[in-house]
Fold this sequence. Notes:
It is a single chain. This protein is an alpha+beta fold. The chain is 27% helix and 21% strand. The protein has helices at 24-28, 32-35, 60-69, and strands at residues 2-3, 8-9, 17-22, 44-48. A two-stranded antiparallel sheet has the order 1-2. Strands 3-4 form a two-stranded antiparallel ribbon. Strand 1 and strand 2 form a beta hairpin. The longest helix is centred in the last third of the chain and has 10 residues, at 60-69. The protein is globular. The relative contact order is 0.19.
Amino acid sequence: MVESVKTAADVFMPVSGEVVEVNQALQADPAMANTDPLGAAWFFTVKISDPSQLDGLLDAAAYEAFAKDA
């Protein structure tokens, strides 16, 4: 669950696994999620239970093309 002053929302993942690390820096400075979402503001690290679940996912370039056409 991700919480802010105004709302809370569940986080959904396209793979199953176990959360093994949480970004403490993001907990201390939640605004990082807006300023550096692809860098220092990672939310958590997951140990994926079934790596084959990654096979159907888009890579960054394919997702960017998909989003551009949407």
